[in-house]
């Protein structure tokens, strides 16, 4: 018995890490911060203020990319170092780890926004739906039709967990809270300076490329979670992802899988500051409706549930294996 207790004490950081992750995810889903009070919303405002001064379209492409790269260093490195040192110096680092993970997961509340948007559309209140969505996407929503609003909601809903639940679990297991925090800051810069937007096409490319590299593993893991729910056709599409004519569209495979599982059409042109950007349409099904949003919500909940259930089962299985080995 003494040996068993010693083994469990040796594994205590593993169980503590799983508990921290679980608490942070549950809090982010059930008790999220309002959008205007989220730390990454403030970070976006800071990034926009900086880009307004240094992102100049009259410079050549190389200069704009250099300005974008230096802006990433200026915004990410100081804050990341300060917060990482805070974790090292804290008397109770587990508390701050939980807080950092909670802040990194705040976008997981988008499922509530999706429900509110669907409710507004059911009342034929497209203006309210556009207003709700405008705080969450960095494209123009003022002229979106009902179909366009449905597409935007579904695409956001089924891609949020890549940098939310999935990335948080994987990165926390690999490098702890500092890795989760640093990666999330890069992702926020990618969203703030979307490379699809003509204004940030070159300036935002470094953030896009860095984010695509960092989130490659979470993207593949999430895509697999979607594909296993779509049958053989979705699994085959996972192995043969579509090619985008746009070199800055890293969510195309995820949207293509979502369209396959939901049997709907996604994608299509988007507008940024009044400028139309031609993007390919994805899927061969009918255009999305309110019923499609409901199906997307179920798909997102089930997919996140798989990851949360795995987070619960792994420590239990590990403890059982320890008991069996001791017996």
TrEMBL record:
Q: Which InterPro entries match?
A: Cobalamin_biosynth_CobD/CbiB
Q: What is its main location?
A: membrane
Please give the start and end residues of each transmembrane region: 14-33, 66-87, 162-181, 306-325
Membrane topology reported for the UniProt record: Multi-pass membrane protein
Pathway membership: Cofactor biosynthesis; adenosylcobalamin biosynthesis
The listed locations are:
Cell membrane
Entry protein name: Cobalamin biosynthesis protein CbiB
Can you name the source organism? Shewanella marisflavi
């Amino acid at each position: 018995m003494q040996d068993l207790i010693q083994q469990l004490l040796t594994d205590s950081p593993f169980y503590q890490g799983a508990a921290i992750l679980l608490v942070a995810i549950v809090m982010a889903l059930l008790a999220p911060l309002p959008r205007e009070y989220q730390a990454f919303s403030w970070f976006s405002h800071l990034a926009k203020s900086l880009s307004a001064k240094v992102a100049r379209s009259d410079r050549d492409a190389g200069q704009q990319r250099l300005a974008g790269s230096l802006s990433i260093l200026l915004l990410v490195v100081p804050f990341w170092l300060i917060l990482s040192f805070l974790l090292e110096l804290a008397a109770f680092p587990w508390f701050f780890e939980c807080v950092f993970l909670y802040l990194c997961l705040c976008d997981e509340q988008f499922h509530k926004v999706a429900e509110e948007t669907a409710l507004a559309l059911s009342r034929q209140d497209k203006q309210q739906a556009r207003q709700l969505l405008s705080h969450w996407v960095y494209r123009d929503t003022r002229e979106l039709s009902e179909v366009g609003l449905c597409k935007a909601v579904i695409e956001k809903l089924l891609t949020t967990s890549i940098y939310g639940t999935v990335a948080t679990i994987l990165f926390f297991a690999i490098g702890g809270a500092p890795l989760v925090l640093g990666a999330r800051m890069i992702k926020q810069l990618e969203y703030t300076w979307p490379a699809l937007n003509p204004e940030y096409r070159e300036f935002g490319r470094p953030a896009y490329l860095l984010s695509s590299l960092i989130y490659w593993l979470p993207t593949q893991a999430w895509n697999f979670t979607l594909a296993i729910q779509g049958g053989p056709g979705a699994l085959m599409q996972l192995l043969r992802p579509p090619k985008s004519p746009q070199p800055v569209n890293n969510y195309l495979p995820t949207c293509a899988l979502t369209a396959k599982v939901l049997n709907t059409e996604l994608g299509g042109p988007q507008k940024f500051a009044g400028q139309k950007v031609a993007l390919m349409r994805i899927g061969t099904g009918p255009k999305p409706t309110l019923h499609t949003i409901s199906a997307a919500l179920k798909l997102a909940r089930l997919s996140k549930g798989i990851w949360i259930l795995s987070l619960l089962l792994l420590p239990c299985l590990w403890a059982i294996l320890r008991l069996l080995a001791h017996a």
